[in-house]
Amino acid sequence: MKTKKTLMSFAATVAIASAFTTNVEAASYTVKSGDTLWGISQKYGTSVSNLQSINSISGHIIYPGQVVETDSNKSTTTSSNNTASSSSSTTYKVKAGDTLSHIGVRYGVSVSSLKKWNNLSSDLIFVGQTLKINGTSSSSPNTQVKSSTVSSGSAIVDEAKRHVGTPYAWGGTSPSGFDCSGFIYYVFNKAGQNLSRTNAAGYYNQSTKISSPQPGDLVFFKNTYKSGISHMGIYAGNNQFVHASSSGVQLTSLSNSYWKGHFAGYGSL
C-alpha cells in the first residue's frame, strides 16, 4: 500500500513538473510567415491588447523571426539545461531608435555578424524583435574587445575630421576633392565599412531613420541646391557635423541658421 502511494505521488510530481515546463516553454513564440497577433492570441489563450502591452507593440504588425512574449508572468526559474543553453548566447530586445550599428557598437560586434546570427537580409530591425548578440559565447556590453576591422562611430568621425579643409569637387571621392556623398563614401570605406557609391538621396533611402544620433551617424538636408534630399554629412557629436560643402570639408554646427532651416533628419547605415 505504501509502495502504491509512493508511485502515485511520484506520478503526480512528474505531471506537475511536465505542466510547468510546458508553461515556461509556451511563454514566448517565434513569429512565422502568415502569423497575426490575433492568431497567436487565440493559440495561447490571451488577447491582442495583452500581447501588444507585453511586447511594446503599438500596432498590429509583426515579422517572421520576431519573438513574441505570450505570458507577462513568465517564470524566470530555469532548469540547469536551460541555464547552460542561455549561457551560450546573449540576446537583446530592440527598442525604439535602435539600429544594428548602435547595437553592434554597444556589444562590440559587427553589423555583418548580427545579420548572420539573426538571418537578416537587410539592416532593418523592429521594436520588440529579439536579436542574438553572440552566436558562440556570452558577452556583456562593452566588455568584448573590438576588432580593428570593425567600423565604429568614433573611427568614422576621426577619419572625417582628418579631411577638414579638403576642397570641394563635384563627384569627388578622394582627398584631392570631395562632394557631399563622395565624402561619405570615402570616409565610411576608409573606416572599414563597405559602402557603395550613390548620392545623398540614395544614402537617405538606404538608411534607418533615427531621432537620437550617435557619432558616425548621418545627417541629411533637403532643398539646398535642388528640391528633395540634396546634402548630407556625418554627425560628430556635440550638435556638430562634418561635411563636404561648396567651401570644402568643414565642421559645422547644426544650430547654424542655414542648415537648421534645411534639416531633413538623421539616419544610420
From TrEMBL:
Residue ranges for the region (Disordered) are 71-90
- Keywords tagged on the record: Hydrolase, Protease, Repeat, Signal, Thiol protease
Instruction: Enumerate the spans annotated as LysM domain.
Output: 27-70, 90-133
Q: What GO terms in the biological process aspect are recorded for it?
A: proteolysis
Please tell me whether the keyword Protease is annotated for this protein: yes
Q: Which CDD domains match?
A: LysM (cd00118)
Q: Does the keyword Protease apply?
A: yes
According to the UniProt entry, its GO molecular function terms are: cysteine-type peptidase activity
Source organism's superkingdom?
A: Bacteria
Q: Where is the NlpC/P60 domain?
A: 150-269
Pfam families in UniProt: LysM (PF01476), NLPC_P60 (PF00877)
Q: List, as start-end ranges, the regions of compositional bias called Low complexity.
A: 73-90
Region forming the signal peptide: 1-26
The record's comment on protein family reads: Belongs to the peptidase C40 family.
Identification of the protein by name: Peptidoglycan endopeptidase LytE
In which organism is this protein found?
A: Sediminibacillus halophilus
